[in-house]
Amino acid sequence: MSTHNVWTHKGTFLLAAVGSAVGLGNLWRFPYLTGENGGGAFILIYALTIFAVGIPILIAEIMLGRNSRRSPIMGMRFLTRTHKTSRGWETIGWLGAASAFIILSFYSVIAGWALHYTGLMLTGSLDGADAETVAASFDALLASPPLLTLYHSLFIGASALIVGLGIHRGIENGLRVLMPALFVILMVVLVYSAAIGDLAAAATFLFTFNVADLSLEGWLQAMGQSFFTLSLGMGAIMAYGAYMSSDASLTRTAFAIAVVDTAVAMIAGLAIFALVFGAGLDPGEGPGLMFVTLPLAFAEMPAGALLGGIFFILVLGAAISSSISLIEPVAAFLVERFDLERPQAVSAMVIASWALGLLTVFSFNLMAEETLFHTLFGRSAFGLLELLTNIFMPLGGMLIALFAGWALTHGEVMKEMRTNETWFRVWRFLVRFIAPAAVAFVFLRTIPQVEGYLLPAIGAVVIVGAFAAGRTFLAERQGS
Ligand code: TRP
């Protein structure tokens, strides 16, 4: 049965997980959120959550996948049965499916922008362009719903095709080339950005930590980003973990994923902000940041059109290896639960997500001005979708941490972790107490402050729900 397949090589899980983790989150979202939130303080919270909360939850999530060897929803159902805990823990699976569906919807629209820029680069349309021309070309793209919809459809269609045909598991060879190539070209971009831009200003901006600079919602965004960039808290890693061989080291794998992922984000950030400060652009430009800065560097480089073309193709590759990890868990669930054929399951998920993606498309044009949406939620539709994922992913991660920390037995964890007792204790302390407390702290601090009426309400329901689930679980545990 497909649920019991194991990756072909021992290192493949790592490769697939890095493929999932490294994507638009590092190259597009990290720099733009950092810029909007004033730099260093944002990075500090982001890095702290990656290492104190992200890595332990990453280990927990792989563990649940490898222990159940099923898709997230069915896996959680299996684990709640075998551990005689409340079925409420299946929320992890459902919440994950909801996050995947929402993330894919806007992820694909943004990846569509990269598709557009691949074309612009390869045709040399931006050769020698100055900052204003580059910015104007980006604005023109955003103003066109048909063009954005076309690119969105192409990207999501390509991802669906890969998962639907089941070739995503064979993608390891592609990733072996793609990831190092992306790294090399990012370094080239960094060197050029340093030459034509202001690297010192970029470094000061990124690494001056003044926590007082960070707005309350910035805290939520920083935590959300650390989950987003690690593909954490929604079952993607669990779904991949289900195929991971039993003897690969969890701890080392989790560290490797986090380190590579963070390194890519930092290099992209340095390159982009060196250009921003060199050309006098606005760091708080927003979602377009990467698309108005990097083409500028390529416009000045010798052979920039070609290098730029290659760069955006690699960005697309990194984005596709992430988007397939958004489709896989939901599709696997539909197959297991409703006996759908794989192509049908993938189509169902992707068509729904595509439709939701139109909201993001319109956020940049038809619905860019004040609409009912802005009045109700205090932000654009795209902003709302991002905010929801900033809540859902940490919440999912918190539940994963609690379940792995409290429900799995000592023996099960040791069988998975294969470390000594000290590391086991450190990890268990982190997932039992620190990670859930950190997530709860940020939620309690920030959600009530979020602008707009409906979100604080949703946030309150979510927090109460989480505590209720925890209590039921403890009660049942004592009863059994
Ligand atoms: N981590 C990816 C990125 O940074 C995005 C992503 C892929 C993701 N799969 C995910 C985010 C699952 C959250 C959950 O581009």
Topology diagram in text:
Elements lengths: L11 H10 L2 H13 L3 H29 L3 H11 L8 H32 L8 H12 L2 H20 L7 H25 L2 H9 L8 H14 L6 H6 L8 H29 L10 H12 L3 H35 L3 H22 L8 H6 L3 H27 L2 H8 L3 H26 L7 H26 L1
Bound molecules: tryptophan.
Quick take:
The protein has helices at 12-21, 24-36, 40-68, 72-82, 91-122, 131-142, 145-164, 172-196, 199-207, 216-229, 236-241, 250-278, 289-300, 304-338, 342-363, 372-377, 381-407, 410-417, 421-446, 454-479.
Helix content: over 70%
Q: In whole angstroms, how far apart are the ends?
A: 33 Å
Principal-axis shape equals globular
Under CATH, the homologous superfamily reads Hydantoin permease
Described by strand count, sense and barrel closure, the largest sheet is: none
Number of strands: 0
Query: How would you spell out the order of helices and strands?
Result: HHHHHHHHHHHHHHHHHHHH
| Separate helix tally | 20
The CATH topology label is Hydantoin permease
- Overall pLDDT confidence: 89
| Computed structural class | mainly alpha
**Unreliable spans:** none
Strand content: under 5%
Cofactors and ligands present? tryptophan
What would you note in describing this structure?
By secondary structure, this protein is mainly α. The protein has a single domain (10-360), classed as Hydantoin permease. The chain has 20 helices and no strands. The radius of gyration is 22 Å and the shape is globular. The chain starts with 11 loop residues before the first helix and ends with a helix. Bound molecules: tryptophan. The site of tryptophan has 16 residues, from helix 1, helix 2, helix 10 and helix 14.
